[in-house]
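Structure tokens please, single chain.
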Amino acid sequence: MQLSAVDLNCDMGEGFGRWSIADADDVSIMGLISSANIATGFHAGDPSLMDRTVKLAMQHGVGVGAHPGYRDLQGFGRRKIAGSAEEIVNDVIYQVGALREFARKHGTNLQHVKPHGALYMEIAVSADLSRGFVDFMRRAAPDAYIFCMGQSLTYQIAVEMGQPVVREFYADRDYDASGSIVFARQVGRTDPARVAEKVVRACREGKVRTVDGADIDIEFESICFHSDTPGCVEMAVAIRDALIASGVRIAPVSEIVRRAETVSRRAI
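Here you go.
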């Protein structure tokens, strides 16, 4: 795999009232990315913050995505909450509906939905949750992308059911031998140069080094970093600069997916 263009996404709007979780303000980050995953109120976010963040994304030409999580403000959505598949999917529906209305208010459509934190990891390994989530998307937002890991059940079921889907590469997370990210509730400061080198290698060679020291293959259309990672702005700038220097453009996710589909058809 050798990419000439890639989407760059970040979790945004992750505050509540006067409190903020992010290491940098959304204005500093929004000009560096092409897709925004906007918190929808359960792990972070509130109506006014959702409104401001959608408006900011529109001003920068950034794709608007809903970022639903477990109902866990205290734990920032990084603790698993027990519940039936139906209950959890209903929580997702509630949150996506809220963000979609703010997108409509500002004259845009919902580009994508990306579950947050512990919910993202749980949906990735649960066939019931993945199927319920994808079924909702097929009914309510058939043209919106699902953002997920390429090795997840979510990806497999989205492809099977015909829902647009985007695979992510995590710049500021480690990988295990299965190709899954190593989930962490708290992450320390990263070296921007090392993260940028990791991202460029993934784009140019389709490889990433795991926590065990082995190289595995990785395929993706979007790169993710987190606004609560310490030093996130410096990291994002380093990623963008390194990608551009290596001939990889940051582009809207719709362009990336169309390009990938064209390449796939030519290969058949």
